[in-house]
Each structure stands twice: as structure tokens, then as C-alpha cells.
Amino acid sequence: MIVTSSKTTHLAGAAFDSIAEQYDDIFTHSLIGRAQRNAVWQVLRETFRSGQHVLELNCGTGEDALFLASMGVSVFACDASERMITVAARRVAAERRGAQVQLEMRSSENIGGLRHAAPFDGVLSNFSGLNCVSNLASMARQLAGMVRSRGQLVLCLSSRVCLWETLWFLAQRQPHRAIRRWRGATMAQLGEIQLAVQYPTMSDIQKAFAPAFAVRQRMGIGVTVPPSYLEHLARRFPQLLIGLTAIDRRVATWPGFRSLGDHTLLVLERTDA
Questions:
Q1: N or C: more exposed end of the chain, with fewer CB within 10 A?
Q2: What is the pLDDT of residue 4?
Q3: Taken in order 247, 251, 252, 253, is the CA torsion positive or negative?
Q4: pTM confidence score
Q5: Which phi and psi angles does 112 have, rounded to 5°?
């Protein structure tokens, strides 16, 4: 394992510094977090294979990097949060010493600075890190020069419309929160930092990544499984969550339903354009 740093100030990085030590307890090890991540991991199993070299954006505490390493994949994992990288390094050393995982503090907006580590066979960004990137098209152009022809991008972003969230907050008589994503952008509070969060449409994402990348697969993550802030319900009714998870697997790719999840997962392919 190698840990390096690009040492640039980044608002999202500073915001996530404040929850780095608690993130695994808040989400990674939660019942809902596990259910949603398992759905993403199934796609990773189908997309990447042993011996490949994959770039991970917004790696957080290293949970996905560790999973890819267990598959025999070499991972170059980046995050804008210095403390997230610190936690990830600690986890890699403790859980998979000797794994081919390189960690670097670097924002997605400046990913082009990793051309020395290219080419990559694929790219992963899981659970909404890209929702904090204001200019996806600029990032996509940088990636285009770093990913092999036919290389796969697995991107998981927060959806513009989340059925669970809309119904939950309408039931709580909080209509402004029920439709907060619909406006396309909102402000999130992490610690003392307010962070702009984008909710691009499918059309927005396709335009941002074209023509270098084309969407090959699309599915919803958390269509019937609720968002993580409803963990208290999942722990109160664990059997219900098991049932909802089974339904989620069935409806995740259905047109209409796949647009209503907590997250949208896309697999894009590097074209010859």
C-alpha cells in the first residue's frame, strides 16, 4: 500500500473530514448501507476482473477498494478528504496488508493529475461522491485520456427523485424536504461546512460524459430499500428490510422504477470517440 497526497484545499474534502472517523458506523456497517452496497458489489463482480487496474474516485474509508482488492484488482483510490484517506490507509493495513491499493488525497475535479498512473481498465465512484462535483463534463474529459478503450466506469450517484424520500417527508409534513432533490441542487450541512450538492438528470450525465463514454447499463440502488437516514426503522423491522431488499433486486432495472431509487448506478464504456 502506498499513500500520497496532492495537498490542495477542497470544500467537500474539508466537509467529509468532519465525519471520517464515524462514517463506517453511520453508513458502512449499517443494515441499509450494507444492503445498498451489496447491490453495487454485484455489479462490480460482473464488471471488473482479477489483474485489472482500476481508479476509484471518492473512495471514503476504503470499503470498496478493499472489496476490489479481494477480487485481485489493483486499485488507485482517491478522496478529497485527508481524514478519509487516513482511515482508509488504516483499514487497508489492518484488513488486507499487502493488497495492491494505492491511496492519494485528490479531488475528482483534479483527477487529470494522475496521468502518470494511467492507463486504467476502469473507474469506480460509489455513493454520491460525484454529486459534489459541479462540472462533470470537465472531469469526464480528464478521465477520457486515462481510461483504455472499452474500459468501464461504474458510477453511483444520488438520484434526482427518490420515491422513499418523497413519501417519507410528505408523511412527516415536510414538503420542502420531500422535493429537495427535484430542484437539481441543494445545500447540505456537514459539521460547520455548507456544501453544494448536485442532482443531475440522466440526460445531464449522458451529455457530460459524451462522446468519450456511452451508458451501457442503468439501475436503481435503493428503490424499495430506504435511504440510510431511516436506519432506525431497518433495525426495528429487520425482516421487512430483508423483504424489501429482495424486491429491490427484482425492480432495480425496470424502466420507471430504476429512476426512483435513493441512488442511480450507471455502467459506462470508453468509446473510440
A1: C
A2: 61
A3: positive
A4: 0.95
A5: -60, -20
